[in-house]
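quick one: 3-amino-D-alanine bound model?
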Amino acid sequence: MAVSVGIVGATGAVGQELIRLLHERNFPFSSLKVLASGRSAGKEIRYKDETFIIEEATPESFDRMDIALFSAGATITKTLAPEAAKRGCVVVDNSSAFRMDPDVPLVVPEINPEAVRDHKGIIANPNCSTAIALMGLAPLHQAFGLKRFVACTYQAVSGSGVAGMQELENQIKAWSEGKDCPPETYPHPIAFNLFPHVDVFFDDGYTKEEHKMLNESRKIMSMPDLPATTTCVRVPVMRAHSIAIHAEFEQPVSLEAAREAIAAFSGAELCDDTANNVYPTPLQFSGKNKCGVGRIRIDSALDNGLAFFVVGDQLLKGAALNAVQIAEEVVRLQA
Ligand code: 2RA
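yep, here:
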C-alpha cells in the first residue's frame, strides 16, 4: 500500500536523515512533500538525483497526506500537528510537544510497537538519549526485571542540530588557527570541553533532558513508578550519544545471560570484548542503525546490578530512524 508522506522541518539535520531513510528503507511512499517554515519555502533539497522544493508548512499542507514526519520545534508542532491529525494525516512527532500526553502513544518499535494501535492521529518519538539508553535497558529488563537505574550521558552536539555541529567545527578550526570563536549555541565553549547542562534547568536542580529520560522511560516501558536518576552531559562529539548505565534488577543477573539478551535484541549490537579493546564508541556507531552495548559487568554497588555502556547515533535511533520505524508500523497496521 503506497502512502503520501510529508516531512515537516526538512531542512534540519534530522529532516535530512528522514529523506535518506525513507529512500534507503524503501518506504512505500507515493509522494514526498518537504515542508519547513516560510523562511525556507522555495529553497531546494537534493537527495541523490532528486530535487525537492520546500513548501511552507500550513494546515492545508496536510490535506490528502497520509503520514507526516514532524521534526520541528515544539511550538510550531503544537499548532500544526493537531491540524494534520484533524485532516486524517497520522503525525509521527519528534518534538517533546506531545510525548507525555496520555492520549499520545510514545513508541520505540523494538519495545512497545503495540502502542501504535492506540493513536488518535499523533504518535510521539522519544527524546534521543531515552531511545538510545533503552536499547540497552529494555532487553535487560526483559531478562531480569528492571528495578531502578542511574544513567550518565555523554551527548553529541548533533543533539542541538546543525547549529551545534557547526559550533563544534568552527571552534576546533579557530583553535587550530589560534583564533577566538566565542560560544553562540551553548553557554560555554564546546571544543575541548564538556558541561553537565543539556536543555534548561528546572527548580529541582535537574535539567529538562534529565526529566525526559525518567518520564519517557517510564511511559515506554509501562513502568510508571520506575525509580531512576540521570546526569546529562554535552561533550565535543559530532553525532552519537553515549550513556553509562547502572541498573538494579528484580532477579539475579549473570554476565552470560545479559550478553545473550543484548545479542538477541533487534535494536542492539553486542560490542563487549575488553580483552581486545572492544566496546562501543561514538565514532564507530555514527551512521549505524543499531546501538552498541558493551562494558557489561556486575555492578559492585547494587543488588542484582549490572553496569554497561550504550552508544547510538543521535540522528538515527535517537530521532529519524525511530520515527521511520514508527511510520513503517503505521503502514503495516493499515495494510
Ligand atoms: C540533545 N536530546 O541532545 C537533545 C536532542 N533531542 O540536545
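Residues 130-314 form a domain with the Dihydrodipicolinate Reductase; domain 2 fold (CATH 3.30.360.10).
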